[in-house]
Amino acid sequence: MNKIKINKYLVLLTVIFIVGTFFRFYKLGSIPPGPEWDEASVGYNAFSIAQTGKDEWETRFPLIFQAFGDYKNPLYIYLTAIFIKFFGLNIITIRLTNVLAGSLFILVIYLIGSKIFNKKIGLLAILFLALSPYGFFFSRISGDGIMLSSFLVATGVLMEINYLKSQRFLFFLLSIVFLMLSMFSYNLGRIVSPILLSIFFLINILNSQKLNKKLFLIPLLIILLAFYLIFKQSSLSLSSRMQYVGIFGANKGLALEIDEFRGHDKNNLKSRLLHNKLTFTGITLLGNYLSHFSTDFLLNYKDHGNVSESHTPLLFMILLPFYYTGILFGFKELFKKSPKEKRSQIFILLFVLLIAPLPSTITEGAPSSKRSLAMHGFIELFTAFGLVTTFSLLKHKLKSNKLIVFIIGVLFAINVGTFLYFFYWIYPKQYGYMYAVRENKICEVIKAKYQQYDQFIFSRRIDGVPYIFPLFCLQFPPEKYWQTRQSRFVDGWHYIDAFDKFQFVDVVDEKIFDKLAPNNKIALFTNEEEKKTILPLLIEKKLISPDQQLIMTKSLINNPKLPLYLFTFRL
Amino acid sequence: MKKNIYRLIGALLIGIVINFLIKFVIFNSVPNSVSSEEIKNMQLLGLKTSLYSLSFRWLPKLLTILIILLSSLLTYVKTRKILLSIITLIILSFSPWLFILGQTLNLHLFLLTIIVLLLISLCHKKYWIFIISFIFILFKQWLDLKLPNLQQIIDTWPLVVRLLDFKTLFFTGDSASQYLKIPKTGYFLFFDLIPLFVGIYVLLKNQNNRSLGKIISGLFIIGLCFLFISQSSSLNIYRGIIIFYSVSLVIAVGYEYLLHNTSYLLKALIALIFVLNVFFTYELFYYHFDKKNSFEWGYAETNAINQLNQKQIKCINITQESGKLKQYVDFFNNDVNFKTNMISNSKLDDICYAKNNCYCLLREQELGLIGLQKEDIETIFSHYEGLPIYFLIPKNNEN
């Protein structure tokens, strides 16, 4: 009987894992469309590493990738380089690391759920996780190693739970390694992992019978090494990144708001006491933090207009009440007279859920689904726990328990069905334009006509970092790129003005004719505004005929929001 | 029992005095000008007032005090808890959403007053929820209520979700109702968040609060329906008025539980945090409310009328673009010493430049039409923060 039961769970686990993995891989190359800017950058840097061992800025195996000047974390790029080495550079290989992490996440959450609660809760949690819109979205984009980082955090938690159960030192060591790796995958790991590590140390010391030197020394060495590497990275990147996205800083909304309020009061003492960084930052941080547990964020009806923010709910509406009850019951468990080990494990789960929003809390535009992805998996665990506990409490009070379960099941199926329809049919059409649609169209043209033209020109009005797309789609040899590159470094950002046949200008206007060599065959891409400037000039200089004019003034993209024009001529 | 009633009467009397002090003395002059929405409401109610008097706001203030007293009475009638009744009185007196509504003339406060009046008289009847729902039919025309179709329900749902968001309720308020909110504050005080959770827990767990719980949940459902049937163009603070009221009652239950079941030290701490929170919030109201949203509070318009009166100008041409000023001038015509003519943009050059016998008041975008730059203009009327809005062009002979 027991054997049959185990097999039943195993079968269900396998089915859910396969379904979750299938949906994460299905149409991976086209939904979401792309590559978008960060994906192209990650892809080309990984390609460059796979080809030469150097990144696009010729640094050999860097600890952090400069990329556009935004300093990308290394782990995702190195893992992607391995896939590129074997399968080449394309949109699927650059998304593969995240999608694998997203799929394996299902197993990790099952193991955590079944160890802390029971197999039923573990299975329910991964059912919600496998079909989670939050997980779907972030498993399928690769601009950063967000899903990878979140997966590593969850695996670190699993290892710590294993350690608490078995007291085998290896698990604690693995927990540290995974958490440390998450710090090199995405910035959320740099905030969540050190806090988790500190609390794991504390719990392990409190739980150990006698003080074990091993418990301190080896982990300490690993942590020191990791922090040394982070310190080396940080001197380059973290402070500038924080200035860019954080809420703190002289020109940020918060500082300006304080100035405004003090201005109303002529900067008197009362105003300085009430309207200062402490009060305003405190209120903002508290509001930001709590918003991660609120309906607006979890159901997510916002239209972000951002490729790296989820347009789908974090949790299905029908599951929302059970998520809240799950947290409530979780706290209740802490105060129950259960074994210390069990309480420690539930405390860890709650702790992860409560600190996961911190990376998003300290940034502008909070709550951000991307920066709070460490909540992923734990939301589903508490939802499953809440659902099961609620029903076990109501078992004797409700007459038609099965009917309620059936209704919830049907509503869940409707939620899932609606989401799948949205994600695979509506989303690419409605939001496809956000995924560098013009840049990818230019790429198509360049790929097809690279040999036919002597110069390709387009401006930063079409795209702020135009150079990365030809590099990506032509799989441009890194050495050749370094030799022909003309670049500038302004305000912390790299500007590429030209390489090989490509020229990138701030704006397409009459001055571009100075940059063109005689007798060259030119392909010039413009947006609507630039078209209005350049078309009369081309006609005046008799570079295009009236017949050509008709063809060339037709947009290459069938989207009135993002017109793109190609003018071809010979000087 | 009798002792409790005396206590309740005492508390209500003190509540009346405190509310009068707060609303009619301390905060009587905030906001210090009239919003364009208030002008519309006064026209609807047939009220007439002077530019220099804010007495038309006595009506919403009195209604708010009535709502607070009746709510306090309601919680006592339903629970027989004197402490809860007093706390309800305090919570509603300092809840930012109700305070703001009481400081401005709006029609939704009438609706809430009638609902609370009905609640107190019908709370022992099982059908109270239907009677109160019936009120919407009476207010249908006035508040422009309409039965929604499926698409409107789908469109309104995200609003409901956003309105019930912790950040919106306690920290930021709704961005769509900016001018009717205390800056840096939500619909409730920050600290009210904890009592809200406690209140929900108590209402679910505690049998003694069942009957109050039923009223609160009934009100919440009515509030949700009201959200769906009210116009999407209406401000969210109005659309959520019944929901906010029910949430306030939950918060009061939470405070009562906290104060009843904690040590003296914790009680003192809760009281201290509450007082600090109130002080912080109402300082923001007193000094920053109408300055932060000076555009909506007609700062520039009021200022323009005052200054033009002082300049003893006889007539002014106003363009369509300056329609808001025209609205103020027409409504406060008893306080306006000049005549106004509406002119169209096509005649600007002719009337305001070539042979103008009247002053002209233009917006920035219209200056270019008569070949002027904003730097050429001496008299400019601006919003509080200094953003120029109206430019005064002198008469020809004064050029």
UniProtKB/TrEMBL annotation, chain A:
Keyword Transmembrane among UniProt keywords: yes
Domain Glycosyltransferase RgtA/B/C/D-like, first and last residues per copy: 73-228
Subcellular location(s) per record: Cell membrane
InterPro entries, alphabetized: LipidA_mod_glycosyltrf_83, RgtA/B/C-like
Signal peptide residues on this chain, from the entry's feature table: none
A cellular component annotation (GO) from this entry: plasma membrane
Pfam families: PMT_2 (PF13231)
GO biological process: lipopolysaccharide biosynthetic process
Protein name from the UniProt record: Glycosyltransferase RgtA/B/C/D-like domain-containing protein
Topology of the protein relative to the lipid bilayer: Multi-pass membrane protein
KW Ribosomal protein (keyword) present: no
GO molecular function: pentosyltransferase activity
Residue ranges of the TM segments: 9-26, 76-109, 121-139, 145-164, 169-185, 191-208, 215-231, 314-334, 346-362, 374-394, 403-427
Lineage: Bacteria, Candidatus Roizmaniibacteriota
Alphabetized UniProt keyword annotations: Cell membrane, Glycosyltransferase, Membrane, Transferase, Transmembrane, Transmembrane helix
